[in-house]
Amino acid sequence: MSVYEMILVEQQGRVGLVRLNRPRALNALSYALMNEVLHALEAFDRDDQIGAMVLTGNEKVFAAGADIKEMMDLTPVDMLKQDLIAPFDRLGKLRKPLIAAVAGWCLGGGNELALTCDMIVAAESARFGQPEINLGVIPGAGGTQRLTRAVGKALAMEMVLNNRTLNAQEALQFGLVNRVVPDERYLDEALALAAEIAARAPLAVRLGKEMVNRAFETSLSDGLRAERRAFHFLFASQDQREGMQAFSEKRAPNWKGE
Ligand code: CAA
Description:
Elements: E1 7-12, E2 15-20, H1 31-46, E3 52-56, E4 61-63, H2 68-71, H3 76-82, H4 86-91, E5 98-102, E6 105-107, H5 109-116, E7 119-123, E8 127-129, H6 146-151, H7 153-162, E9 166-167, H8 168-173, E10 179-181, H9 186-198, H10 202-214, H11 220-233, H12 238-248
Parallel strand pairs: 2-3, 3-5, 4-6, 5-7, 6-8, 7-10
Antiparallel strand pairs: 1-2, 8-9
Helix pairs in contact: 10-11
The structure holds acetoacetyl-coenzyme A.
């Protein structure tokens, strides 16, 4: 699969960019769309020329959630067999940093998709919410788990039980997003952030991401032990030598990713 129908894919330097492109359905995350996203991002993740990735929608909508029309007549057995949520799990396992650039609606599965990313850059127009309660269901792709870890119990309860939506400034205040910028700059800002990270020592970036994510999965003592092993491991890399040598010689390091 390299001809995509519902996404646009491009490479800008060492940054891979994927745009959700199903505007008439407000980028509703059908199974086919999610599989295209997964395919494109996993390809970037394997590509040595790529150091970081950006996932975005358009200026009106990041994504309005899972595709309700596709889901509405499914039985639990259909759900189990198709495993519509599986792509979200695989996106959570990408090794390189993935930044969501969000403008407009970021709802339901759309918000869950943004939450599987490592950072979120929001436009002033961004609106975040979990409206599944209006459909008689609950979030199924991390909205009760990743969202709670991001914003805490009090707010997650309101969002999941009562469709409380957050504007961009609230999302910043509650720790859901990294930064809020004017609408005309949200994608450029996300691409610039991705380019900065993509220019850094690749192995350290990879292990840094893995270890921060580990903090959500483990006890403090296990996390600290894993962090220490990763830290020690990096002393086997050429980039550790190069980085510390460059510091002592007062010059910029030349990273090799080895
Ligand atoms: N699934 C399928 N189609 C959707 C959709 C969705 N999640 N969201 C919007 N659309 C479609 C609409 O049906 C409409 O299509 P038609 O023109 O063919 O009727 C088109 O996109 C435009 O939508 P609206 O006319 O509703 O646009 P609006 O500007 O009036 O409202 C909105 C925008 C408030 C985002 C509204 O579309 C909306 O509430 N969408 C649904 C949001 C939602 O409930 N998301 C959760 C989905 S469930 C989920 O995500 C489960 C999970 O955890 C994995």
